[in-house]
Amino acid sequence: VLVGFLVAPGNLAWKTHVVLHGLCAQRPSHSLTIGGVTLPMDARMTGIYLGAAVTILWLIAARRHRATRVPSLPVLALLTSFVVALAVDGFIALLVDLRFPTPYEPSNVLRMATGILAGTSLGVALGHLFASSMWAQGNRQRAVVTRPVELLTPISVSGAIAVLAFMDIPLLYGPFAVGLLVAAVAVFALLAQVVMALVTDRGWSCRTAADLAPLAITSLAVAMVIIGGLSWLRFAAEQLLGLPKLT
Predict the structure, then answer these.
(1) Which of 14, 24, 100, 152 could form a disulfide with 95 if both were Cys (CB 3.0 to 4.6 A apart)?
(2) pLDDT of res. 244
(3) SS3 for the chain, per residue?
(4) What is the pLDDT of residue 245?
C-alpha cells in the first residue's frame, strides 16, 4: 500500500496533505516548512505522532510490549502532566486567536514540545492497552514504564528528531512527510486492533507474534479506511459549507 501511495500520481506534499486532511487542521502558520514545503501536519500534531511512534518503538526495543502491570502513581502523574501541558498550550493558543490577553505568545517550538510530551503519554497508553488486551500470557510483574526517569529516552529521541525538522533540510521533507503518515496509520491500527480484539472476543488469546497477524492486518485496513474516510468527510464539509482555508 505504501509503495502504491508513493508511485501514485501527484507530488508527495499534495498526497500526504490530502490523506491526513481529516486528522489535522493543517494551518500553515502553525506548521513547519522543510525546503519551502509545509509538512502535512501542524507542529503540535507532528509532535504528538512523533512522540507516540518513538515511544511505541522504544517499548518494543526495551521488551516492554508484554508488560501488563499498571504503571506506578509517579509515572501516571508525570504522563498526565504531559497531557495537561499540551491542553494548556492549546488553550492559550485559542485565547490568542480570540484576541484575549495571554501570559505568553504560542510558538511552533512550544507546540512541538508539548505535542511530543503528550505523544509520549499516548504511546505509553497504547503500549499498556495492547499488552493488557492481546497477550494470553502477559508479564504481570512489569509495567510498560517502571520509573519516571525512563521516559527521558523516548522524549530525548523524539526531541532530536524534532530538531532536524526545525533545521529546514530539504532532503528531509520526504522522510518526515511519509513518517507522519506511517505514524498516524500505526497509531490508529494499534487502537483498532485493541478494540476489535475485545469486540470479537479475541482478546487475551495471542501467545506469539504470529498469532497477532490476522487481527493486525485487519486493523491496518480499518485504520486506513478511517483515516481516508475522515479526510473525505472534511473535504466534503468544506465544499458543501464553503469553509475558508485556515491560515
Answers:
(1) 100
(2) 85
(3) CHHHHHHCCCCHHHHHHHHCCCCCCCCHHHCCEECCEECCCCHHHHHHHHHHHHHHHHHHHCCCCCEEECCCHHHHHHHHHHHHHHHHHHHHHHHHHCCCCCCCCCCHHHHHHHHHHHHHHHHHHHHHHHHHHHECCCEEEEECCCCHHHHHHHHHHHHHHHHHHHCCCHHHHHHHHHHHHHHHHHHHHHHHHHHHHHHCCCCCCECCHHHHHHHHHHHHHHHHHHHHHHHHHHHHHHHHHCCCCCC
(4) 84
**Does the pLDDT at position 57 exceed 90?**
yes
Check if the beta carbon of residue 35 is closer than 8 Å to that of residue 104.
Answer: no
Please write the tens of the pLDDT for every residue from 135-160.
Answer: 988 899 999 999 999 999 999 999 99
On whether the CB atoms of residues 197 and 131 are closer than 8 A, the answer is no
Give CA–CA dist 64/78, Å, rounded: 19
